[in-house]
Amino acid sequence: MFVKAYPVGMVHMLNNGNVEDEGESRMEPYVGLEFDSADEAREFYGQYAIRVGFKIRTGQLYRSRTDGSVSSRRFVCSKEGFQLNSRTGCPAFIRVQRRDSGKWLIDQIQKDHNHELGPVGESHSPILQQTPPVVTKSLVEVLRRPKVKLLEEIDNGGLIPSGIINFKRHKRGGDGGQSIAEPYTGLEFNSANEAYGYYQAYAEGAGFRVRIGQLFRSKNDGSITSRRFVCSKEGFQHPSRVGCGAYMRIKRKDSGTWIVDRLHKDHNHDLEVHAVYQRKFSTASKKLLEEEAGGLASMDLVEVNNGKLVKRRQENKIGAEWYSVLFEYFQTRQAEDTGFFYSVDVDNGSCMSVFWADGRSRFSCSQFGDVIVFDASYRKNNYVVPFATFVGVNHHKQPVLLGSALIANESKESFTWLFQTWFRAMSRCHPKSIIADQDMAIQQAIAKVFPGTHHRFSLWQIRAKERENFRSMPNEFRYEYEKCVYQSQTTVEFNTTWNLLITKYCLRENIWLKHMYEKRESWVPLYLRGKFFAGIPIGESVESLFGTQVNGQTPLREFISRYEQGLEQSREEERKEDFNSFNLQAYLQTKEPVEEQCRRLYTFTIFKIFQDELLQSYSYIGIKTYEEGAISRYVVRRSGNENDKHAVTFSAVNLSVNCSCQMFEFIGVLCRHVLKVFKLLDMRELPPQYILYRWMRNPEYRILCGAESGISSQELKAFMVWSLRETACKYVECGAASVEKYKLAHEIMREGGKRLC
After folding, report:
1. HSE (CB half, 13 Å, CA atoms) of 228?
2. Helix (H, G, I), strand (E, B) or coil at 344
3. Quick check: helix, strand or coil at residue 553?
């Protein structure tokens, strides 16, 4: 059985050749011919094909690297390719490309056919014409959901909006039909669709149904590298499912073909010998639906049964067996930790994404939630589990866990749910900055949930795109590109150098570079230096908090133990630094009062950063260049180096200062240039606004300074609640050690309660 798939809104044109606009339809296609839309171009080519004597199909499409929208399309002769016996590999086609104006232009054309042309009669497969679609209410409801997509690949791996899926329908013994061979490891297919069609036909003969299961993507370009097709009774998300283990997994080879690399045939339920799954395709169900705003977004799967769209289900990359293990772990942790939080996204009764955070993570967020790293680096490689983390930077400049998640799919809706859940769990903590991947779905989710938060792109993704786009560029270009991006000191210098570089190497039409220039404030160091990132280096990738202990390859049986081990190891490192900060004193290297002030307040790690800046300030010369009222300006330069200089502006009204190096804005510690000016002004202590409470060693100091620094009442309350909760937990643990200690702890709390009331 062959099923033709057409884009939504297209119907058969049975009056072949009877076109209304004779003038336009008689025109020959040529390079440069312009259309208002891709549909108009398809209709024009279809009418031209009728006159000449051939039929057309929609061929390959290409997507924008910027936003995933369709940037060009091919419309081909129906005899293109060799997937069917009726095809002859005909090369005839037109390709239309979308311009910046929104118009579509023919930029490639091939008119010659390798087969005989003739009149297109009604017996032939019809071409498509744009008409207002007539659909039922149920179909309209599905179409309003934005992410309906088709598992559709041609031989070279590209996604196409329509085509032909070859379902060789299995006829069981006695029906006189062809039988389907048993699947086996090593069986090859030309495409993923062909494999899916084969497994469906095999399943129908065997007496079970098939669902599309987990997929894996390439770390380089996000393309699908392997797929699982599973028995419909796999998992436990629905009462009808019994955790069946039968499946077939296919893997894409370098040649573009797909091979069965894993297979399990045994079912744990009775097979439906007499109730074979029937797919009667109506006009509506023949249309396979695709979302054109895709990119790396997830699919919504529509099951078709007896000609009706009966179910819409989002793609889920989390194996069904993970949920029971995680829920058991969550319940155990909740019994131990009253601050433990978890939440599960549910779609049509099925579990999807999962988020969790313990009380310690929620307390850490109340102190260090101003900068977060959303680490979804599981996507760098093929992964078993889509494990992601929210990570902050503590007062020792160590990574600290602020939440964990398994992500069902990479859609805007999934990321929006995840960020909203984190926001709710963390007492509505609104970060100043976030480091996350640059996928459009993530960008849109951040803009929606965290308006005003500065989104900095993850470096690993930028590096991967640079390798992909600069593969054919000379080394000279790479050197000039790196110099422009990482050494520009002013916006004028960057813009000028960038434009010269683009012009010199004829890269005006490079879509990725054009997009990256538009988003320069999210990745170019020059633009990021003025934003607070707690000193997380710009030119380095952020390391995973769990290292190699927990990642996208961690198997289920080891996940919980490795997760707990990695988390405990991270927190042990924090406890060591807390001990050092309270029990060790750094050696003072000057007699400056500011050094003693900062040693008293800062953690050991932050004090060493400040002390180094203070010592470096002795190598600089400060010269006042301007003074008017309370405002004065200085040029501070290194002795013997005229190029190493910065401008410092000081206001005596509120003791405010800023430096062109922007170190304080980026790290939160004053730079050597400002310290030199303070010495010239004989300022013996730093103004309180320049000692950030997040870098202080004592929690009580952090709370008091936070109250004085003007943070919101909601953030301050969350800070105090979690600080008191954390302290109380320590006393509870000590008080429960023995009956005597319990009596003492109870008496202390009773007396303390009286004083509070």
Report:
1. 21
2. strand
3. coil
Distance CA 596, CA 594 (A): 5
Strands 224-231 and 210-217: antiparallel
Helix, strand, or coil (residue 683): coil
Sheet holding 631-638, edge to edge: 620-628, 631-638, 641-651, 656-659
Half-sphere exposure of 225 (CA within 13 A, CB side): 14
What is the phi/psi pair of residue 381, to 5°? -130, 170
* Helix intervals (H) in 131-227: 137-144, 192-206
- What pLDDT sits at residue 206? 86
- pLDDT for 700 equals 57
Maximum CA pair distance of the chain? 102
d(CA 286, CA 150): 12
Query: pLDDT value at position 472?
Result: 86
**Distance in angstroms (rounded) separating the CA atoms of residues 314 and 292:** 16
**Residue burial 111-148, b: 16+ Cβ < 10 Å; e: rest:** eebeeeeeebeeeeebbbbbeeeebeeebeebeeeebb
Please give the pLDDT value at position 715. Answer: 64
For residues 391 and 492, give the distance between their C-alpha atoms in angstroms, rounded to a whole number. 34
Exposure class string for 720-731: b at 16+ Cβ within 10 A, else e: eebbebbeebee
Q: 142 by DSSP, 3-state: which?
A: helix
By CB neighbour count within 10 A (0-12 exposed, 13-18 middle, 19+ buried), where does 109 fall? middle
Contact 8, 59 (CB under 8 A): no
Amino acid at 258: W
Task: Please calculate the CA angle 78-80-81 and round it to the nearest 5 degrees.
Answer: 130
The structure tokens listed for 121 are: 């009669």
Per-residue pLDDT tens digits for 239-284: 678 888 899 999 988 888 889 999 988 888 888 743 333 443 333 2
Alpha helices (runs of H) in 488-592, residue ranges in sequence order: 491-504, 511-518, 525-528, 556-583
* pTM to 2 decimal places: 0.60
> For residue 555, how many other CB atoms are within 10 A of its CB?
9
Through-space distance between the first and last CA atoms of the chain, rounded to whole angstroms: 80
Cβ contacts of residue 23 below 8 Å, gap of 6+? Answer: none
- The pLDDT, as a whole number, for residue 320 is 87
Q: What is the CA radius of gyration of the chain?
A: 32
Q: Any residues with CB less than 8 A from the CB of 724 and at least 6 apart, and which?
A: none
Q: How far is it, in rounded angstroms, from Cα 627 to Cα 224?
A: 63
Q: What is the dihedral of CA 3, 5, 9, 11, to 10 degrees?
A: -50
What gap in Å lies between CA 618 and CA 182, rounded to an integer?
80
φ/ψ (deg, to 5) at 675: -65, -35
Q: In this structure, are strands 620-628 and 454-457 parallel, antiparallel, or unpaired?
A: unpaired
What is the pLDDT, as a whole number, of residue 66? 65
Asked whether 74 and 156 are in contact (CB, 8 A), the reply is no
The residues pairing with 358 across neighbouring beta strands, listed in sequence order, are none
Element (H or E) spanning 677, and its range? helix 672-680
Q: The tokens of 559 are what?
A: 């996940």
Dihedrals φ, ψ of 181, to 5°?
Answer: -65, 150
Domain boundaries, the chain: 33-110, 187-264, 322-458+521-563, 593-682, 713-756
| CB 573, CB 338: distance < 8 Å | no
10 Å CB burial of residue 655 (0-12, 13-18, 19+) is middle
CA–CA separation, 101 and 108 (whole Å) = 19
- C-alpha–C-alpha distance, residues 308 and 138, integer Å: 9
Q: Pick out the chain residues at pLDDT < 50.
A: 1-25, 121-177, 273-312, 707
- Beta bridge pairs of residue 357: 341
In the chain, the amino acid numbered 407 is I
**Inter-axis angle of helices 713-735 and 699-708, nearest 10:** 160
